[in-house]
Task: structure prediction
Amino acid sequence: MSETPKFSGFDKQTLPFLKALGFHQNREWFHENKPLYETVVKTPMGDLVEDLSQRFEKAKIPLKGTRKTSLYRVNRDVRFSKNKDPYNTHGSFLLTRSGDKKENGFLYMQFSNERSFIASGFYALSGEEMRAFRDLIVREKDTMAKIVKGMEKHGYRFDMSESLKRNPSGFEAAEDEQLQSWLKVKHYTFIEELDQSELLKPELADKLFMLAKRSMDFLNFGWRAIDPLREVGEE
Result:
């Protein structure tokens, strides 16, 4: 079995390549420069994912991925978008319990010239899953408060950028302001912004590892809410 490549940082050409890709949104240019994309974007992303997966396995953190399953494609899905540019100008990947990007409860990273960040949590839950998640928050408000306080203590931001204006249906009676704020959010994620210089350093892997480790209480909380629904669907 070949040894897992250790992540040594992204290349100095990673962000310049993505910037150039923004100017050259055509297949001919990308085809000519695909070897550079593979070298400075895709390969280090794959190294980071597999390095983390190996570390998670040793630490018994139930998240994993591979360079084949965890990286998001550079090709954009333009079928339902007014923007028909064929390529993404950012890199991103997702690690989950199964390694499948469609599963919720994740560690995520995205990097570009405009913004780079890491995140953990739950995104775009189904209606039933959101209801179950909110029900658990109502039942275990103190647990949620402890989790949020602990994550914020380490510098992670609970993302409330997408929130409803009113309490969601079925939760109209919630009067506590803190509880209301948690019930109104559309996604349950913690985020840490990255300085672009951090992309070049091997220590970026440590940052992701610590986010995953510190997120386990939150991920387990969310899985307790949504797993029963998945189990019912599998019956």
